[in-house]
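Final report, closing paragraph on structural work. Over the funding period we assembled a curated collection of sequence-structure pairs, and we close with a single example.
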Amino acid sequence: MAAGKQVISANAPAAPPTPLAPGVARRVITADATGAAPSRLRRGLATAGWFVASVGLFAGLWELAWAVGLLDPLLMPPPHIFLRHFGEQAKFFDTSTIGSAAKAPFIAVLTTILATTLRVLAGLALAFLGSLLVGVLVSYVKLAGRLFMPTLTLLAPISPVAWLPVAIFLFGIGNGPAVFMVFIGVFFIMTMATVTQIASVPQHYLDVARTMGASRRQTLRRVVLPAILPGLLLVLRLNLFAAWIVVLIAEAVGVGSGLGQVVILARNTFNSSLVFFTMTIIGLTGFLFDYGLRVLQRRLLWWEPAGGGLK
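Its predicted structure, as stored:
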């Protein structure tokens, strides 16, 4: 009987768990759901604070050098000089009517920034897609690798500036030369990086995919591309600033508008305030461009750790 009682007791349903106090579960769920938001907010505020501190230190040292007489305000005007007359500087960004205020100052500056930014975006997008296609083709088709790799290796060291006459010969005057220059400045490096990244994919990744019956196309799409994408985006970010340098040179020579043309105008007129005003805009635009690429990188590479790669 004792044994029987023990069996019955063992088979009896377990007692229901003690209910939580009202509101406890809701508080736990809310904390889990929103706990990451304050952390992201703190990181964002800290990053913004250090940015302001860094720029403020640089500008403060510049102002101090001017105040003690180390800098000539005609040649190296401090920030409070070249930034205080926004309208006077912004009128030079209206390239349709140089020297007049046909457009509102803010609209003229914004239009010029947008023109340069779109050229950089177009060149980077074409270079990224083209290098990915050529890199995959060279890596997976032996004949293509033997035919294309020597030429790619030969053309890669050529400076993008050397391609400027070719760009003008091919596309004349307009957006074409600037986009082509950005494309050339990034394409060869990205292609070589793609080939290197594909060759460095761990073999056990491919073995597991083959064991699970994945086809060659499925292996490329679901194994190889996710494995090489972090490295390719990192290379793209590293070449972002080179792309900005190239597009400014192209705009100064072969395009009728853009930040590069404003810089050349400032040089030709010996307008040092306009030079530093335009340099400030270029720096801020490039910084925001890089920040946008970092955000895109975090969105696309959702499987990567938060601290991976360049921050």
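The CA atoms of residues 283 and 289 lie 10 Å apart. The first helix runs from residue 2 to 11. We thank the funder for supporting this effort.
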